[in-house]
Structure prediction request, 101 residues.
Amino acid sequence: SAWGCMVSNLAVLPGLGSVVAGRRCGYVQAALALVGMTFSLIWLVLLVMQWHRTGEYPFDGGPHVIMGLSGFGVFVLGWIWALATSVSLMRAAKNAEGEVS
Prediction:
């Protein structure tokens, strides 16, 4: 089950596996991931709209590049936190397995 939480955390939505495992920090991890993803997607839409409007690709990332980069950074922060929680869950599961044997 710790593997399922890890896959959920790292491949589906950071924080989801943490919530399933009963860790309250998963809600914050998921919020960080969703906010970061939202900011990045808004920046991407604005970039494509500028590209369409001007007819030239904005190689500088457009006027909202800070929003896109900060969104990506916030998402990565949530993902790394979820990774750390997943590693903690895996260690706890391994220790519990060792105690049972």
